[in-house]
Amino acid sequence: MSTKLNILIVDDEHSMRDFLESSLASRFRVFTAKDGFEGLEILKREKIDLMLSDVQMPVRGGLDLLADIKSQLDYSPVVIMMTAFGTIEGAVEATRNGASDYLTKPFGLDQLNHVLNKCLEHEKLVTENQSLRQNISTKSEKNGLLGNNHLMVKLREKIAMVADSKGTVMLQGESGTGKEVVAQAIHYSGPRRNQPFIRLNCAAIPESLLESELFGYERGAFTGALATTKGKFELADGGTLLLDEISEMPFAMQAKLLRVLQEKEFMRLGSKDTTKADVRIIATTNRNLQEEIKVRNFREDLYFRLNVIPINVIPLRQRKDDVPLLANHFCQIFCAENNKNLLTINENAMRQLVAMDWPGNVRQLMNVIERAVILCHGSEITAESFGLSDEMDGTAEVSQLDSDMTLRDMERELILRKLTRTQGNRTLAANELGISVRTLRNKLNLYTDQGVEIPG
Length: 456
Description:
single chain, alpha/beta, Rossmann fold
């Protein structure tokens, strides 16, 4: 059973305190105070997670209470200011001094909950970033930056070289190679390490929502916009914004992103004012962007803007000498996570791991080792513990392609075979190929134009 968060309501109006207390009692453990003095005493006595405070009160107003929190408390609750329409300037000043947001009276329950959820989500993001900073070394090793292969040594050297720069980084590599981990290593090794690291998966956000996710929106900008909301650019101000799977960004949205990268400013949806943001961009892709440019899926000018510092994250099959090291490392981690005595991987099982081509790269190896640790009953992991039939099937499918084919021909043949195998199910085929349905659809449209018969 989850413990409720503590919320403090500070307002001199008895009716407002009662309204908020009754509205929030189901979600929070509610404390109330009629002025800043009483509120500060509660803040000292209780660990308050979230505070709603009126700006103007006859005795010790909200701005004074905010200053008291900074000077007298050893922790910082999330603060939301409440203000009447004519005193918004005070709430804006409060946000400059540490308040997370403000509400203009009168406000409804939907608007209240929206602002509360937004602020709590942002606080969660900040906490996760702090945790990530503390554990970046362990996390990097767990996800595959560990390795003695000369290509991995060069990768780590390049990360160290670019970490202190402001240049935009383009991380290219297959799915599962650890591109996000490389991005985290660049951020947390550089001067922005104490600032936010924000990630946006361009393939996971519907096209209609992507602009608001990136740039934010004003209250009333569209149906359901109940309060002004910061976008990823604004949240990442001073830090790093990771644009994951940039190749899946819609073509029209790419032009808007390019303008923001060039001007270093943007406008929230529904706003006429520009907002500046100091953000370092790191983009990732598992696609060949130069090929995507040829078929007009990706803007060439955006490619040049993003590809200032290109880094290729190598597939596992190109550093098979690291497989034993990674396998044993993952084995130690998952034994500890599952409260098991340390297991060993026998010689025959290790030979099988090294022999595989690992189309899913380090992520696939990690999953295989986790499964083996969980299913192993003895003290030794054998080849049978891996359950590699499905993975080997995928490797065989690739290896059966004609070695005389061009890379483009091999890609087309593999896509068509996947469609045949999935009986024309494009969603399933795209998942197995590690690409988005949109990318698959664009490829199939190209093949159709070339007169190729599409299965299903």
